Amino acid sequence: MRVFILVWFGQLVSLLGSGITRFSLGIWVYQETGSVTQFSLISLFAMLPSILLSPLAGVFVDRWDRRWTMIFSDSGAGLSTLTMGLLILAGRFEVWHIYLAVAVSSTFNAFQLPAYAATTTLLVPKQHLGRASGMVQTAEATSHLLSPILAGVLVVTIQIQGVILIDFLTFVFAAIALLLARFPKPKITVEAQVGKGLLLHEAIYGWTYISTRPGLLGLLMFFATSNFLIGVVSVLFTPLVLSFTSATVLGTMFSLSGIGMLLGSLVMSAWGGIKHRIHSVLGFTLLNGLCILLGGLQPSVPVFFVAAFIYFFGVAVINSSDRAIWQSKVPLAVQGRVFAMRTMLAWASVPLAYLMAGPLADRVFEPLLAVGGPLAGSIGRIIGVGKGYGIALLFVAIGILTILMVVGGYLYLPLRLLENQLPDAIINEASPTEENER
């Protein structure tokens, strides 16, 4: 655990720096262009390369040394950030440079994320995987909470080039932490040779492993569906809240949601979760569906505050539990390929959600509950009529779909009994005294 904590702390610092830069670049693009479309493209470029390249990246994660893979990824992302800083100093910085730099960083993240997940399994004893997943989630929650606050201060005081320099230094810090860490050397196992061969065959093996295990496949499909619904909610949450209150209250709400996520992560770090983690996944997803449903039925500031806090507390528990399930059920030798395929398929639905959310709200649901709209005299009597209430109705629909998804997941026995039916992989299969110097 000591080695893991060293690696984790380096990644925490790097994640915080990246969060500050991402938020600052968003502010810069919106101030420079005034375009919501150009602003939203940052999120798209930050996600697509990582999703598309994940299967191939997973092959190399299994082939290469995990520590040097993470160093390579952090260094590549850091150089991409440094290039942006140099362009700003040279006075040649343009918006398309941000898209390119963010896409390059996303490419390196395709290697870093599965390598980090597999490294956790390598370093952490099986009984502490839940706590380790909570710590990883704590780092993400800390970035979610502190990045907007620090970015707002730093952009004013040291400007965008200073922020980018800090981000580059955080990548250097993470790389140094990895260089100081001493990883155990994984033993040669039968699983390490499975699926080996052509690059394409190895990339496909991640899907073969998942698809031949109904419980894992069910869990993957559950998250792919959930991520689509969450993607719609995340895009429309800001317009929904701003329809009923001010931007200041919205900022406070984001901070409160970050606190909820951080608290949930800390609970998981200290506790590790219940024995059957799938129950945490299903139970808190059900709770989150109820939060979305409540926010749509009673769109008001107090309800938003309570729902946002509970929702993000649940997100921390769900993500930590899901991560620990995969780490305990997938052999270490193939985790790079399996985790990469899992990342691609689970998150592939999110860009679709981003594309559909706006038209669904503007062209379908908002007109339904406009003054004199088709549903103004029926559902409008319950929810309300006017600007923002159509989005609230869409939240009601998503909340109901989330609840139905959880019921379906619970009734699907391979998913509900996943941890009983699928035996744990051998977790502590590394020699604690040998350093991996490959």
From TrEMBL:
<keyword id="KW-0812">Transmembrane</keyword>
<dbReference type="Pfam" id="PF07690">
    <property type="entry name" value="MFS_1"/>
</dbReference>
<dbReference type="InterPro" id="IPR036259">
    <property type="entry name" value="MFS_trans_sf"/>
</dbReference>
<feature type="transmembrane region" description="Helical">
    <location>
        <begin position="301"/>
        <end position="318"/>
    </location>
</feature>
<dbReference type="GO" id="GO:0005886">
    <property type="term" value="C:plasma membrane"/>
</dbReference>
<feature type="transmembrane region" description="Helical">
    <location>
        <begin position="339"/>
        <end position="358"/>
    </location>
</feature>
<feature type="transmembrane region" description="Helical">
    <location>
        <begin position="216"/>
        <end position="237"/>
    </location>
</feature>
<feature type="transmembrane region" description="Helical">
    <location>
        <begin position="278"/>
        <end position="295"/>
    </location>
</feature>
<keyword id="KW-0813">Transport</keyword>
<keyword id="KW-0472">Membrane</keyword>
<dbReference type="GO" id="GO:0022857">
    <property type="term" value="F:transmembrane transporter activity"/>
</dbReference>
<feature type="domain" description="Major facilitator superfamily (MFS) profile">
    <location>
        <begin position="3"/>
        <end position="417"/>
    </location>
</feature>
<dbReference type="InterPro" id="IPR020846">
    <property type="entry name" value="MFS_dom"/>
</dbReference>
<feature type="transmembrane region" description="Helical">
    <location>
        <begin position="249"/>
        <end position="271"/>
    </location>
</feature>
<feature type="transmembrane region" description="Helical">
    <location>
        <begin position="164"/>
        <end position="181"/>
    </location>
</feature>
<keyword id="KW-1003">Cell membrane</keyword>
<protein>
    <submittedName>
        <fullName>MFS transporter</fullName>
    </submittedName>
</protein>
<keyword id="KW-1133">Transmembrane helix</keyword>
<dbReference type="InterPro" id="IPR011701">
    <property type="entry name" value="MFS"/>
</dbReference>
<feature type="transmembrane region" description="Helical">
    <location>
        <begin position="391"/>
        <end position="413"/>
    </location>
</feature>
<feature type="transmembrane region" description="Helical">
    <location>
        <begin position="68"/>
        <end position="90"/>
    </location>
</feature>
<feature type="transmembrane region" description="Helical">
    <location>
        <begin position="41"/>
        <end position="61"/>
    </location>
</feature>
